[in-house]
Design a protein that fits this description.
With 351 residues, the protein is of the alpha+beta class. Helices cover 33% and strands 20% of the residues.
Length: 351
Amino acid sequence: MGESATIRRKSVASVKGDASINQQGENFLLLALTFVVLIISVSPSQAAEHRADQFCHVTISADQNLVNSEISVQAGRTLTINATGKINVARPGQTNPIVSTLGPEGTFHFLDKESRLWFPLPAAGAGTDPVYALIGRIGSKGRPFYVGRNHSVLATASGELWLGVNDDVCTENKGHFSVRIRIGGPLTPVSVRNRVVGNVSAAGPLPDARVLIFYVDGLRPDIVEEMSAMGHLPNITRTFLSGGTKLQHAYTVFPADTITANGTMWTGTFSDRHGVKGQIGFDRRAGRSDNYLGTDGPVLNGRFSMPKGIERGLLQAGIAVVRLVKGGREAAQEFRDRRTSETPTARHHLA
């Protein structure tokens, strides 16, 4: 106990005797401890994120199914794939094979016989992905995923990257895809949309402008954007997506059926104004169904909104007959309300 106290006192005296050496030692010790703390504070996952990006190129032949690229992918790291090239695919025709030249995006146009084929990534009659597109999977038993021209995701599994053509039998295909692969780095968007800010000054209509309405019944805008980003719909992409504007908060009407939406589109009002409540209306008094979705549906729709010309003359004649036969203004008004909403359509504004 006395010896240890003596040693402690000697140490203190030694420190006091050489202040410069002590100061250098403290600085060195502080630097060493800081370095150790930095090493301990970096977790293995954070260290993996700071690894250098890996780049490589592979060639995927069209006459092979999914093949091992021998490129390792780690879960949690970014996987970005860019593909170019064309392949000739032998497709099952009625009598002889039909050869189609396709890019990595494949095609959604499938033949009758292809609807009964098995594809590694469900397509044609069995799924929603394109046939003969470039696809991939991670690991020999991983689930296939669409690659197309561009693909950038955070890997959810670890393993070797497999790539190939979404085809059931590839032996008669010709050509290849050139594929560039990057492991790590930022995610790369496959499509970019320019957002117009809300404080842009309002602009009036162009003088002497003509408007062509390209109306596709039942076509969802999100599907159009998805297919465009995948490399399909080049004409619609160029004309409407790249060269047009999308309103962010534009919604359909209720009920969201064709004829009710048409009435709103042509009048600028909801169904409580233009009166077309649905595609098929049943008149309980007359015991009759009116089908606005038939071949004469547009005629009935326009006639109900605001009839013109001969149609308006017939309506006025009917109102006069009802007033004469049944007597009274109320019966005539009821007859009129059951046959027209008197809502102006686009053609009335353009006349």
